Amino acid sequence: MPSVVTIHTSLATVSSRRRDHLTALASALQMRGLRALLSVSHAQSPILHLAAHGRRVAVVVAQSPTGWVFLWPGAQVPADDVESAARQLAAFVQPRPAWQPRRAHLSAVAA
Description:
Helices cover 32% and strands 27% of the residues. By secondary structure, the chain is of the alpha+beta class. A 5-stranded antiparallel beta sheet has the order 1-2-3-4-5, with helices on one face. Strand 2 and strand 3 form a beta hairpin.
């Protein structure tokens, strides 16, 4: 009588789904000229590290009641919308303009 033994299949499947989503996001970021590093360990979930213009961002993917989502500080984007996530991340890591004091501007009125 044949038997099937499955050990840690659901955990392996969840981890591989996370890795697949983050790999797709890394490719989309690369198409935008950004470099990302996917770190994968046996004990933890994979994390996508993005460094650009002096900013560092860690992106994770998690399963929500509505499906898989990419998460990073201040954002949550559906994982099936990789292009939108890449566009938002690219905007997020863009350098912010330096604060510049306003010059005093006086209008002259001739009488």
